[in-house]
Input
Amino acid sequence: MPPQHGPRRACIAFSDSAAKQLENITNEADIHALDRALVVISVDPDAGEPIPGDTNGPQLRQYTDEVESVRVLYFVTALRTVVVVAYIEV
Output
């Protein structure tokens, strides 16, 4: 019997500005908090709330973890295989 695997996780990619923000995070607790938020988003890209706005491009979403004090703005690609992070706040 083949092994059972959970649902496939989306890959996380960073916009240029989010990558710069990521480079500036040096506190280990902040890195851990951000990592936890990114795992949640990769497992369930719908975990965040839609941000109202322009409907011409991909729907921008916001995931906020009040316990870890993390906020991530992101959008999901059409095939739902990649989550592109646009902004990070830790």
